[in-house]
Specification:
Layout: H1 2-10, E1 16-18, E2 37-41, E3 54-58, H2 105-119, H3 123-144, E4 149-151, E5 164-168, H4 176-184, E6 190-191, E7 194-197, H5 206-237
Parallel strand pairs: 1-2
Antiparallel strand pairs: 2-3, 4-5, 5-7, 6-7
Helix pairs in contact: 3-5
Bound molecules: pyridoxal-5'-phosphate.
């Protein structure tokens, strides 16, 4: 991110980063890396639930810059004069000025419950656990799964978070998603032939990881078998 930010700034651009898959997963230093702004959702690694409100970061150096246009809502207005109803808008000189209106309270409650848990853990330890857990997943996949499952995420732990994307070629006609759900009670997310496996360091265990890999191994075996049976049937029919 630092290198991308430097390249952007050299061209006179501001840099904004989508942290949807980073927040609560890897812990970049946004001020040090000179990132101008970022946005993210709270429902992935931060566990605030589907439909949770989004987050926004704006680099401190922009907070008091009046030339940056904002959507001026009453929650961004200087609190001491909020009800004076003056004709001039007076923005709060912090990141609070980007707030517009009342936030939805149930979503804040679930987000708060999640953030309290994150407050109570050491983020450095969480990241170390995440690196070990992801490495364990990688090792098991390499050792136990056939070549038609390919890891397409970088192998260097510094270049990835708590996730491996797998290309699953076994049994092209079967959906891994349906099979895993029906047979193993595991809910997968697939995009075409890619499934994304994310052991969350906060609560997933080495046992969870092993269980997943063994389930996927069963899927591969079953579908290779079906594939062979299809071929035999076809031959018999011919
Ligand atoms: C999940 C995700 C988002 C968040 O989108 P929402 O509209 O908040 O659901 C944004 N960018 C990426 C890359 C994502 O994976």
């Amino acid at each position: 991110m630092k290198a991308i930010a430097e390249a952007a700034h050299k061209k006179g651009c501001k840099i904004g980063v989508d942290l949807a898959h980073s927040i609560g997963n890897v812990f970049p230093n946004l001020h040090q890396d000179e990132i101008n702004f970022t946005v993210w959702c709270h429902y992935k690694y931060l566990n605030a639930g589907p439909g949770a409100i989004a987050g926004l970061f704006v680099h401190e150096k922009h907070h008091q810059n009046p030339s940056i246009p904002i959507l001026a809502g009453w929650w961004g207005h200087n609190k001491t004069m909020r009800f004076d109803m003056a004709s001039e808008y007076s923005a709060i000189p912090t990141v609070e000025k980007w707030q517009q209106s009342n936030p939805p309270i149930w979503q804040l409650a679930s987000l708060r419950a999640s953030l309290e848990i994150f407050e109570s853990v050491d983020l450095k330890e969480l990241r170390e656990k995440s690196i070990r857990l992801t490495h364990y997943l990688e090792k098991l996949i390499d050792e136990l799964l056939p070549d038609d499952v390919e890891i397409i995420t970088p192998r260097d732990p510094e270049q990835r978070g708590s996730q491996l994307s797998l290309k699953v070629k076994a049994g092209a006609k079967a959906s891994v998603e349906d099979w895993m759900h029906k047979n193993e009670g595991i809910i997968c997310d697939s995009r075409g032939e890619i499934i994304r496996v994310a052991p969350a360091a906060l609560y997933n265990t080495y046992e969870d990881v092993a269980r997943f890999v063994y389930a996927l191994r069963k899927f591969c075996k079953t579908h290779q078998l079906e594939h062979q049976q299809d071929k035999l049937e076809l031959r018999a029919r011919l």
